[in-house]
Input
Amino acid sequence: MTSAPQRRRGDGRQRLLRIYETLRLRICLLDYPPGHRLREADLAAEFAASRTPIRRVLARLEDEGLLRSVHGVGTIVTDIDIAALAEVYELRVALAELYGRLAPVAPDGAGLDRFRAVLSGCDALVERPDARAFARLNMEFFALIATLTANAPLRQISERLYYQTTRIWLKTAARLAAYERLLAEEIAHFRREVADVLAALEAGDLANVGAIRRAHIAMSFARLRAQAERAAPGE
Amino acid sequence: MTSAPQRRRGDGRQRLLRIYETLRLRICLLDYPPGHRLREADLAAEFAASRTPIRRVLARLEDEGLLRSVHGVGTIVTDIDIAALAEVYELRVALAELYGRLAPVAPDGAGLDRFRAVLSGCDALVERPDARAFARLNMEFFALIATLTANAPLRQISERLYYQTTRIWLKTAARLAAYERLLAEEIAHFRREVADVLAALEAGDLANVGAIRRAHIAMSFARLRAQAERAAPGE
DNA sequence: TAGGATTTGTGCGTATGTATT
DNA sequence: TAATACATACGCACAAATCCT
Output
């Protein structure tokens, strides 16, 4: 060992991860809405790289179902519809319950504080509703939930399914007249979920977290389906 | 529309899938054992392609945990150990039960015949045990099981987890003195599983298939752990 | 219908990192 | 310790496919 490995900006592998997470966030916040066409050259320019590492990231996003590359056309953000997502939601509901059963990990003091911080964030959102901020806080909450199991494959798969579904609320709500009211309602529901989970964690009842989450995910999808009905009644 | 799209050999996308499945099979049959180093150039030559599409396939296998690319070294088949796979098995056990509950699909006559063909294959294996043939038949059975649910994400994820675990039996059994006996026993267990599943299907009791599979996967892992103990007692 | 513009897929040379002698 | 061998990561040029005029 002669000297420190001279870590330049981005370990190469970590740079890819950063780009991956950036693009995923943009897709899930609808900065890139369904149908949006990405161009490899543009992304390469933006991230100061060549097309090769960009293509590596796009390939992963394609394998995960968020993008679809078409030869000669472009790389297109996948569309999402309630019917296809119903399957994903069913699976998410079932997996949610496993968090309390498979290698549960009780959060320490700092962990609990992070849950409390999300709850505070909810309160702020109730005061001043904002769809993007809501979506971000939801992701943060999900990341915290993931810390509650030591089962790595469960975390990985739950994450994948979560990111496949999380765009749908923003998409369906956006085209409804009652958008403002729906957003406020959804934030209230979310706050309730966070509060319920936090209460279970403070009581040390990890098994209950799974049941709580299961119920909330199922109800969330039911509301979504009702909204989709109103948005496109005859479909 | 002027003329038929003139489908050449391999639609491009399908060629990638073929290479992917070929390499995955080799990894799972231990033709490429854990630690084996693949070289992009070799694979490119074998499949009459350049390194680029090969890299696309290797990237996917890396994302799925079967390979690990190390800059300057090579692309290495991941090692597998009981401890890490315990998590995957726990999840597989839980997912198995979902097959009877999430969008179950009753097989038609031809579907049942394919299950019966697997059972016949088991009988042949009992007569003349062969580890590779057993592994292949096991994969075939898994593919049939996957047809029993219409929930695409469930199929996809189950498949992924299956291929992450299926190598382990061949690997642990191979270094045991009682290899021949263990193989015969494992084939007998497998035959029992296929017979049980077939009986449930013939009775039209799809919900039971999940329970049967769940029990067999759990027992299979228990046997595996016992074998691993014998193979490396002090670990 | 044909042709040009544009975009992804492919092929390959070079840079960078690792292991070994 | 330095140098050599060799493999992946990267970047670029070209081929193939699609869309639009």
